[in-house]
């Protein structure tokens, strides 16, 4: 039953039909787009393209209304429990969203001696802006301590047991990630909240979870959630910051005075609709099962090391804690060479330093091959990949 559901969805990605010999295994970098998203863009451009927030003729009014509708669909997709109190700001992606929170919202509120907790082994996009905020404040004579949110190697999660010593009366903010972009681990955000208490804002980088697993802001209990449209089947240059409180960052001073990415946001609305109709919970089950198949296959190939392999064995795993991302290295081959071999066999994977903070992109020992999955991927693709990997000993 799951297979016929998946067959029907896979058939909706035109790019796959154009390249029957290729397996696209890099959805964590960017996702392919279903026809419904391409059609929505085309339809908008050939029937009513106009600027938003200005103009009084019907196309302009319809564009403004369409973008407001995307904002509401974003709230619904994220399970926003308090739409009257919260705000959704459109941004160009996760990187811009996190920067805006760090520099426009957080930095002006911090005082000398304040402390913030930020992850140090996550995506650089979730490290650089917090340090930039610290540096800007330091130039103005305000000293803010940036404390690394520690990892626990055995679970791949943040080390919640170490948190009590790190959290103090001057802790003002926590930045965290929902699903790790290299390890595929699902970070236990509930325990972060429990450690910092109800009053410290938590900002969640959800670049790898939106569109991959059902999101419920009501359950997550965070204050900001940021994601990129292009990783959720929409066009690049789109994304959103959800802020629990309307007093969010001033992303677009002057309201509609700047031109928004109208076409991109139309694609975002169509993508969220497509994901909802496809059933994100099923997409999650499908990709998690494929990732497990790959991890299991790699376990039988001793020349490979799976990064954060303990993740799927984590004792406290109440649910499957590894998502549709698996990264690994070969004992002898460099990850760049391994990537080259896989590409030559039609497997499009990521093979480099993976934008991981604290990792030297030029150091081959830090590189890895990453396989990241979406609903169009199949068990046959995983088995084919494993068959090629098995030939390299
Ligand atoms: N955070 C995470 C966890 C990511 O995986 C990525 C993209 N790889 C980003 C942030 C940055 O996203 P974008 O390039 O769309 O701004």
From TrEMBL:
<dbReference type="InterPro" id="IPR015424">
    <property type="entry name" value="PyrdxlP-dep_Trfase"/>
</dbReference>
<protein>
    <submittedName>
        <fullName>Aminotransferase class V-fold PLP-dependent enzyme</fullName>
    </submittedName>
</protein>
<dbReference type="InterPro" id="IPR020578">
    <property type="entry name" value="Aminotrans_V_PyrdxlP_BS"/>
</dbReference>
<keyword id="KW-0663">Pyridoxal phosphate</keyword>
<dbReference type="InterPro" id="IPR000192">
    <property type="entry name" value="Aminotrans_V_dom"/>
</dbReference>
<dbReference type="GO" id="GO:0031071">
    <property type="term" value="F:cysteine desulfurase activity"/>
</dbReference>
<keyword id="KW-0032">Aminotransferase</keyword>
<keyword id="KW-0808">Transferase</keyword>
<feature type="domain" description="Aminotransferase class V">
    <location>
        <begin position="24"/>
        <end position="253"/>
    </location>
</feature>
<feature type="domain" description="Aminotransferase class V">
    <location>
        <begin position="257"/>
        <end position="385"/>
    </location>
</feature>
<dbReference type="GO" id="GO:0008483">
    <property type="term" value="F:transaminase activity"/>
</dbReference>
<dbReference type="InterPro" id="IPR015422">
    <property type="entry name" value="PyrdxlP-dep_Trfase_small"/>
</dbReference>
<comment type="similarity">
    <text>Belongs to the class-V pyridoxal-phosphate-dependent aminotransferase family. Csd subfamily.</text>
</comment>
<dbReference type="Pfam" id="PF00266">
    <property type="entry name" value="Aminotran_5"/>
</dbReference>
<dbReference type="InterPro" id="IPR015421">
    <property type="entry name" value="PyrdxlP-dep_Trfase_major"/>
</dbReference>
């Amino acid at each position: 039953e799951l297979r016929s559901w998946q067959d029907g969805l896979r058939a909706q990605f035109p790019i796959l039909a154009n390249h029957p010999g290729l397996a696209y295994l890099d959805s964590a970098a960017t996702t392919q787009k279903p026809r419904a998203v391409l059609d929505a863009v085309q339809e908008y451009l050939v029937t009513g393209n106009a600027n938003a927030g200005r103009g009084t003729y019907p196309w302009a009014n319809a564009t403004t209304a369409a973008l407001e509708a995307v904002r509401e669909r974003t709230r619904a997709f994220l399970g926003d429990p308090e739409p009257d109190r919260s705000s959704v700001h459109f941004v160009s992606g996760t990187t811009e969203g996190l920067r805006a929170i760090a520099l426009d919202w957080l930095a002006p509120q911090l005082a000398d001696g304040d402390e913030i907790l930020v992850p140090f082994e996550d995506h650089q996009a979730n490290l650089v802006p917090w340090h930039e905020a610290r540096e800007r404040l330091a130039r103005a004579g305000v000293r803010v301590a940036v404390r690394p949110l520690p990892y626990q190697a055995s679970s791949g999660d943040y080390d919640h047991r170490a948190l009590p010593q790190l959290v103090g009366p001057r802790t003002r903010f926590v930045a965290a990630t929902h699903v790790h972009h290299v390890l595929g681990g699902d970070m236990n955000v509930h325990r972060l909240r429990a450690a910092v208490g109800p009053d410290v804002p938590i900002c969640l980088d959800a670049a790898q979870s939106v569109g991959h697993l059902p999101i419920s802001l009501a359950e997550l209990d965070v204050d900001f959630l940021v994601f990129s449209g292009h990783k959720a089947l929409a066009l690049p240059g789109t994304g959103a910051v959800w802020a629990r409180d309307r007093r969010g960052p001033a992303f677009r001073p002057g309201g509609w005075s700047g031109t928004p990415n109208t076409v991109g946001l139309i694609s975002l609305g169509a993508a969220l609709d497509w994901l909802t109709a496809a059933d994100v919970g099923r997409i999650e089950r499908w990709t998690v099962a494929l990732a497990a198949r790959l991890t299991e296959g790699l376990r039988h190939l001793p020349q490979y090391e799976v990064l954060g392999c303990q993740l799927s064995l984590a004792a406290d795993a109440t649910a499957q804690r590894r998502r549709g991302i698996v990264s690994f290295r070969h004992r002898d081959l460099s990850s760049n060479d391994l990537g080259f071999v896989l590409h030559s066999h039609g497997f499009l994977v990521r093979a480099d330093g993976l934008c991981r903070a604290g990792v030297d992109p030029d150091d081959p020992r830090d590189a890895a091959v990453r396989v990241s999955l979406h609903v169009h991927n199949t068990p046959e693709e995983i088995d084919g990949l494993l068959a090629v990997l098995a030939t390299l000993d």
